[in-house]
Amino acid sequence: MPDDNGNVLSDIASDSVRRIHLVGVAGTGMGSFAGMLKAKGYEVTGSDENVYPPMSDMLEAWGVTAMSPYSPLNIDAARPDLVIIGNVIRRVNVEATAVRERGIAQMSFPAAFGSLVLSDKHSVVVAGTHGKTTTSALLAHVLVSAGTDPSFLVGGVTLNANSNFRVGKGEFVVVEGDEYDTAYFDKGPKFLHYRARSAILTSVEFDHADIYRDMAHYESAYEKFAATLPENGFLAVAASYPNAVAIAQRASRAYVATYAAQGQADYTTENLRFGPEGARFVVVEPRGRAGEFLLPMSGHHNVENALGVYAVARALGLKADDIRTGFASFEGVKRRQEIRGIENGVLVIDDFAHHPTAVRETIVAIRQRYPDRRLWAVFEPRSNTSRRNIHQHEYETAFEGASLASIRVPEPHDKVPLDEQLDIGKVVDALRARGIDANASREVNELVQNVIDRAEPGDVVLVMSNGSFGGFIPSLLAGLKARSD
């Protein structure tokens, strides 16, 4: 409905739109959505302050014209029926202003996705603090493998599809549901727009301290999400997070099923074991034992996420054997325990972990997969939450299983007051007290050189960051290679 922000819509009929312009198109989610819209037959343009590889190459390959920098002239050239505003765009942005002044219909990315992609589909949303990308990618792959021809949009590049979106003709659409805010004119969580009929809730732990005041405020977003599912819907929730179960049972009208890698739940495992090939386990479901499964990943958290996928896939009508085939053929997601290279006998693994729980579980998973190799954990606390001392103690205990740890001291951030910043020195001291050879530096090159100088053949170097980490991994691989030449 029109308001003081301009002609902002919460819904729009797809047949009333032919030309779409995305403001902030170079972001991972917005860029992928642009490609998805192009694949659905719309005329699509976009703009951003800077458009550079790899997204610039991807947009070109998808046939999306990307303009830079922002300018009202971009809006005039695009002549859009609808403008989609990314959540990084502020009200004062010159194109956002031009859209309001010209009275052009505008929507947020999540609202547009709901209207243009999900309106006549069965939306399956994966939400939670941890594991959303891998879980949604696994579910999407299982549905593809089973021949249901689904669509999906996830927050990482799936290695099976070499993409983070797919446009299929089937009834299912898998969406990674984010609890972050939606747009400058809609500060509610993105996942409220995703029209979930089925869903997985992987976890609920405090995160996004820049927009949520405290745990109660954060949990309220998930209560609102759970309430969006219809009575004939299905919600699978991880039993290892009792607060998530309580939220689901309190707020959702849908059928709620629990899952857990270990312990009491509707869906659980027996004979769980880990090895170089990943995890093997027997699925136990309400119907009984479903036989043994192979998941080419390690870590209890990944097995648990897979059980959530199993529960929802069964509710969607898949047979156990369909899911078994999908699990075994899953290749993973870029930057989720992704092997980036081996140089001079040193294995380098890339992971997106940044919350202390994710750091701890990822280290445990890599230790399970490579039990006889020395593990060096390298971490960049880059997100708004990880820079803060709200998880000070958790980070001090999150590196168990690593023999060595290197941590980047974050650059000053104007959104994090000095007295609220994570004290890296205390983290390092606590790790050393636990017998972990720990160090820290603000300079990426210094951290890289330390690993190059001290890494030994057979070591596993696990690099964890939700950003580029200043090119840490390419520099490390190049340095290790040069050392062996």
How would you describe this protein?
By secondary structure, the chain is α/β, with parallel strands linked by helices. It has three domains: 14-114, NAD(P)-binding Rossmann-like Domain (Rossmann fold); 118-328, Mur-like, catalytic domain (UDP-N-acetylmuramoyl-L-alanine:D-glutamate ligase), CATH 3.40.1190; 338-484, Protein-Tyrosine Phosphatase, Chain A (Alpha-Beta Complex). The chain has helices at 28-39, 55-62, 72-78, 94-102, 109-116, 132-145, 215-228, 242-251, 300-315, 320-328, 356-369, 392-396, 424-433, 444-454, 472-484; strands at residues 19-23, 43-47, 65-67, 82-85, 106-108, 122-127, 151-158, 163-166, 172-176, 181-183, 186-189, 196-201, 234-238, 255-259, 268-275, 278-285, 288-295, 338-343, 346-351, 375-379, 404-408, 437-441, 460-464. The strands form five sheets. The chain has a seven-stranded mixed beta sheet, sandwiched between helices. The chain has a six-stranded mixed beta sheet with strand order 18-19-23-20-21-22, sandwiched between helices. Strands 3-2-1-4-5 form a five-stranded parallel beta sheet, with helices on both faces.
The proportion of strand residues reads 25-35%
Stretches where pLDDT is under 50 for at least 5 consecutive residues are 1-5
Helical fraction: 25-40%
CATH level-four homologous superfamily name of the largest domain: Mur-like, catalytic domain
Q: What's the arrangement of secondary structure elements?
A:
Blueprint (H helix, E strand, L loop, with lengths): L18 E5 L4 H12 L3 E5 L7 H8 L2 E3 L4 H7 L3 E4 L8 H9 L3 E3 H8 L5 E6 L4 H14 L5 E8 L4 E4 L5 E5 L4 E3 L2 E4 L6 E6 L13 H14 L5 E5 L3 H10 L3 E5 L8 E8 L2 E8 L2 E8 L4 H16 L4 H9 L9 E6 L2 E6 L4 H14 L5 E5 L12 H5 L7 E5 L15 H10 L3 E5 L2 H11 L5 E5 L7 H13 L1
Parallel strand pairs: 1-2, 1-4, 2-3, 4-5, 6-9, 6-12, 7-9, 12-13, 13-14, 19-23, 20-21, 20-23, 21-22
Antiparallel strand pairs: 7-8, 10-11, 15-16, 16-17, 18-19
